[in-house]
Amino acid sequence: SAILLLNGPNLGILGQREPEVYGTDSLADIAQAVREEVAGPDWKVVSIQHDSEGDLVRAVHDNYDTVGAIVNPGALMVAGWSLRDALANYPRPWVEVHLSNVWAREQWRHESVLAPLASGVVVGLGALGYRLGARALLALAARESA
Ligand code: DQA
């Protein structure tokens, strides 16, 4: 089984992007951490990052066969309507992750058009949030197949 790890705009430069806000782990480090978290012969992690919304929409379409998704939409959280519609048709549970505590930041970051569709949201725990998201998905996937 595979988990989809989907990251949106400006997250491909993690490690070098405002490290005081987003930490020093690269996206490759984060993907590796998620792989460790779901470690096992039957599990793989499909890690995809795009800066443009259309490519993210297509990545959702192309990965309906995954058992769940971890999604950091970046700034698309506030107005990513086509990503929102794509996730509405994603057949499995997914969790939204934000590295920073968006609630402690500018007002415009306080809205997520995606979160109402998510099984849960992890915010403000840095790279650890992705590990926690992976743990949640494993539990949700087990519940679905029980
Ligand atoms: C982010 C928070 C968003 O507000 C911002 O636009 C990002 C990163 C986070 O992971 O903290 O690109 O999603």
Structure description:
The radius of gyration is 14 Å and the shape is globular. The longest helix has 18 residues, at 128-145. Helix 4 (81-88) links the parallel strand 3 (68-72) and strand 4. The protein contains 5 helices and 5 strands; from the N terminus they run E-H-H-E-H-E-H-E-E-H. Strands 2-1-3-4-5 form a 5-stranded parallel β-sheet, sandwiched between helices. The chain has helices spanning 19-22, 27-37, 53-61, 81-88, 128-145, and strands at residues 2-7, 44-49, 68-72, 94-98, 120-123. By secondary structure, it is α/β, with parallel strands linked by helices. Helices cover 34% and strands 18% of the residues. It has a single domain (2-145), classed as Dehydroquinase, class II (Rossmann fold). Helix 2 (27-37) runs parallel beside helix 5 (128-145) and helix 3 runs parallel beside helix 4. Residues 10, 72, 74-75, 98-100, 102, 109 line the site of 1,3,4-trihydroxy-5-OXO-cyclohexanecarboxylic acid.
Task: Spell out the blueprint of helices and strands.
Elements: E1 2-7, H1 19-22, H2 27-37, E2 44-49, H3 53-61, E3 68-72, H4 81-88, E4 94-98, E5 120-123, H5 128-145
Parallel strand pairs: 1-2, 1-3, 3-4, 4-5
The protein binds 1,3,4-trihydroxy-5-OXO-cyclohexanecarboxylic acid.
Residues 10, 72, 74-75, 98-100, 102, 109 line the site of 1,3,4-trihydroxy-5-OXO-cyclohexanecarboxylic acid (DQA).
Short account of what is shown:
With 146 residues, this protein is α/β, with parallel strands linked by helices. Helices cover 34% and strands 18% of the residues. The protein has one domain (2-145): Dehydroquinase, class II (Rossmann fold).
